[in-house]
Amino acid sequence: MELTLAADQLAELGHSTRLSIFRLLVRAGHGGMSVGDIQAKLDIPGSTLSHHLSRMSKVGLMQQQRDGRTLYCTLNFDAVNALLGFLYAECCAGDQPLRVENL
C-alpha cells in the first residue's frame, strides 16, 4: 500500500461522522447497510450523509450498490485489511531481541 493512499484513508476516518459511518458498516458486515438506515441511525441530513459517503468512496473505503430504489453501502473489506496491514507491517520491528544476559 502506498503511504499517500493510507494517509488519505486515515484522514477520511479522522472525521467523527465518517468514523461513525465506518463503524456502522463494520457491524453490518458484507451485506452492508442502506443509506436510509445509516441516515436514521446517525440522524443527519441526507445531503450531509451524501457528502461523507462520497469522501469515503473516493478513497476506496466503501462502495455503493443499488437494489431497486434502495442504495446500499458496503465497506471495502479488502481496502480496510490492506490499511490495517500497512499500519501493523512494522510492528515491533525496532524491539531489541531478548537476551539471557539482560535478565
UniProtKB/TrEMBL annotation:
Keyword DNA-binding listed: yes
Keywords assigned: DNA-binding, Transcription, Transcription regulation
Keyword Transcription found: yes
Positions of the HTH arsR-type domain: 1-95
A Pfam family that the UniProt record links to this protein: HTH_20
GO molecular function: DNA binding; DNA-binding transcription factor activity
UniProt-listed PANTHER family: ARSENICAL RESISTANCE OPERON REPRESSOR ARSR-RELATED (PTHR43132)
Name used for this protein in its record: Helix-turn-helix transcriptional regulator
Organism expressing this protein natively: Shewanella cyperi
